[in-house]
Amino acid sequence: MDKKLVKQAVEGYLQKTGYGQMSLNAAMFDMDGVLFDSMKNHAKSWHQTMAHFGLDLPEWEAYMHEGRTGAGTINIVSMRERGHEATEEEIERIYRYKSDLFNQCPKAERMLGAYELLVKVKASGVVPMVVTGSGQKTLLERLNRNFPNIFQEELMVTAFDVKYGKPNPEPYLMGMEKFNKVFTSAQVSPNNFIVVENAPLGVQAGVAAGVFTIAVNTGPLPDDALLSQGANLLFHSMQEFCDEWQIVFSYLA
Ligand code: MG
Questions:
Q1: Which residues 6+ apart lie within 8 Å of 39 measured at CB?
Q2: pTM here?
Q3: Is 220 helix (H, G, I), strand (E, B) or coil?
Q4: Which pLDDT tens digit goes with each residue over 39-67?
Q5: pLDDT in tens, 89-125
Q6: Cβ distance 156 to 142 under 8 Å?
């Protein structure tokens, strides 16, 4: 990546937010589609589930809804296909079917380059955090197994912490709050963070939280789906971001 692009992105962010400078303390990583290559499984499960219930949700569209609650996604499709929202009972039935399908999928692999990037981030003195809408019970164990010695539980935001979820800025605001609680000596603001996201709604949440947001386009959507939500910088893979970390960091520190 051209250094000029990174410089421009940072200058644009500072101009828009009014901060004098970036001073990076922590990097908030989304999980699905960023740390794990799990979005294919979600998209396939959503598509097959909707077809089973006589509704249509193409796989690519599932990527547009990534980050939404199950009920939110079901209602959008129901409104479009049938002209009315789904009942509570339908939502439960459809979502359970989707979860069962997803759980039958082979376990998603670590995203290529993700661990190497996290090691670099940590070595730069930046604290890696996870901010996810996922609420799997085995989340922490799975993260620690795949990314040993990277994450701290007190600095993790999951489905259990939030009320609204993305695209609401809440999860990222909570991430900053948790960081503040753990490092009580530091008084932090959004310019002390970056967000790393693969989904349009996730980018929207990061930007709404006032944080410099780096999009990693690991799915089938056009780059513009992420840039139009306000992403400050875009990479096409975690490996590419990993390879360019030093350049990015030099402008964020
Ligand atoms: Mg994601």
A1: 32, 33, 62, 63, 66, 198, 218, 219
A2: 0.94
A3: coil
A4: 999 999 999 999 999 999 999 999 999 98
A5: 999 999 999 999 999 999 899 999 999 999 999 999 9
A6: no
Cβ distance 172 to 209 under 8 Å? yes
Tokens of 26: 């922590």
Kindly give the distance from the C-alpha atom of residue 42 to the centroid of ligand 1, in angstroms, as a whole number: 11
How far, in Å, is the centroid of ligand 1 from the Cα of 132? 8
Q: How far is CA 116 from CA 59, 180, 239, in A?
A: 29, 26, 8
Q: Ligand 1 mean position to 185 CA, how many Å?
A: 31
Rounded to the nearest angstrom, the distance between the alpha carbon of 156 and the centre of ligand 1 is 15
CB atoms within 5 A of ion ligand 1 belong to 30, 32-33, 198-199
CA of 1 to the centre of ligand 1 (A): 23
CA of 223 to the centre of ligand 1 (A): 15
At position 79, the amino acid (one-letter code) is M
Residue 88's pLDDT band (cuts 50, 70, 90): very high
